Amino acid sequence: MRSLPLADPGVPDARSPFRYLWWIARGQAAPLLTGMGFAVLWWLAQALVPAAIGRAIDSLTAHDASGLVRWSLVVLGLGAVASFGGVMRHRSAVYNWLCAAYRTVQVTARQATRLGATLPKRLSTGEVISVGNSDIAHIGNAVDIVLRGSGAVVAIGAVTVILLSTSTRLGMMVLIGVPLMALAVAPLLRPLHRRQHVQRDLQGDLATRAGDIVAGLRVLRGIGGEQVFTDRYREESQRVREAGVRVASVDAALEGAQLLLPGILIAFVTWQGARYALDGTITVGQLVSFYGYALFLVGPLRTMTEAADKLTKGHVAARRVVRILSLDPEIGGTGATDATPEPGGDLADRESGVVVRPGRLTALACAVPEDAIAEADRLGRYAEADVTYGGVRLAEMAPAEVRRRILVADNAARLFSGRLRDELDPTGSASDDEVADALHAAGAEDIVEALPDGLESHVAEGGWEFSGGQQQRLRLVRALLADPEVLILVEPTSAVDAHTEARIADRLAKARTGRTTLVCSTSPLMLDRADHVIFMKDGKVLAEGAHRTLIATEPAYTATVTRGEG
Hints:
Layout: H1 17-27, H2 29-61, H3 65-115, H4 118-122, H5 125-166, H6 168-215, H7 217-223, H8 226-278, H9 284-296, H10 298-325, E1 347-349, E2 355-356, E3 361-366, H11 369-379, E4 387-389, E5 392-393, H12 399-405, E6 406-409, E7 418-419, H13 420-424, H14 432-441, H15 445-450, E8 458-459, H16 468-482, E9 486-490, H17 498-511, E10 516-520, H18 524-528, E11 532-537, E12 540-545, H19 547-553, H20 555-561
């Protein structure tokens, strides 16, 4: 099997849908041109068959045995060439389809990774899913139809020349009839694509609704809202069905027109050709050829209509892809790759006053939980802020360098499907002892022991087979195995019981010995075991010190960590 040349998809041209499709075509120019060549060979071989059959019939009526044999062999040869061309054209079409579709998958997946948290803020889940489900197919179809469409154009041109050289009148009938049929079908394309666009948007919304229901099913059942959302999903699915019926009605009219109009042309050409054969203007063999060409032209004509349809759909799909590719992350700038601070420096936010000292377990307690999340985003450069690491501004560092050194692990992180060990150690660099130590530090040994195949067990999408507390502990294991210079944990024990939380609090400092760790939490168990505690209120550092000292001296801190009134 041929390998697809997709190691590096390149930089897409996202200035417009047409430029994107042209970038796709340029990226696979050689296989595309090869496929077009096979398509031309395939169509031309078929186009010449009626002429050869007509000559064979004329040889038969003239009692020319040698001519009959000669033209019969020509028909046989054309059939063999058409078979070879058809097989190779199909192979090329599949290869080009896959290249175009999966290059789109690669560039959109890479862009989704680049956008990170920006993507779900700008586009719905359903719209992103629809790109992978349907738009890549339309882009692949647009590239595929170029092969058959180019061959169809050449075939129609060749047939027209043959007909004009045989009978000018019949040739002109075909020459005029072909564009007239195309023009007659064209008005159906616009309403078809408009209705397809509406249906696609509704499908995206429905996919988003389904994702929300599945993600929140446990909560919905708890509050009795399952039936409400089920009814809403049923209503939206009916709208999708109705939109699909409207698309099908226009599509059926288009299919009927593609059969009816060529049929009318065939009937007219055959009737006129029969009249010419009766008065001796053309031979019987030429009449058969004209009839064969009238039948043959149905294929190229339908291909041309199909090309208009698929190219338009490809343009619409490319517009959606370009929309994703044109988005920029909320964090501006690319940073300077030479701005790399020495490890072991302070991580400081000048605006809030938070300073995370190296090699220590620091806790950040905020009077408002949202402030902790915002501060973690600032320190991890997921939001614009004047933050420095080792004296170097994060904005001056390359994003990849920031991500390598500083890891923000919050409860929005997902567990993906696959082998549990691969989920916990995506790079595959951790030893068995390191995995065991991380499981111990996160208090997650019991989770693995309860699985039938341990670390070899398969994790379902989203880790739905695990409870909220189990997912939280597994996410902590993954963060510990990543072993960044700076680890920022946001409420890492909010979903576990007090005994498990105490074990994690005791083991976390040991697991991160010599590394910089910031835990955003208001849990007294976590705060009491931290080397240093920072208390933030109204977005500013209000007090710092040991947990027990702050409890004794700072009433607002006491009210926050004891859930009392400040």
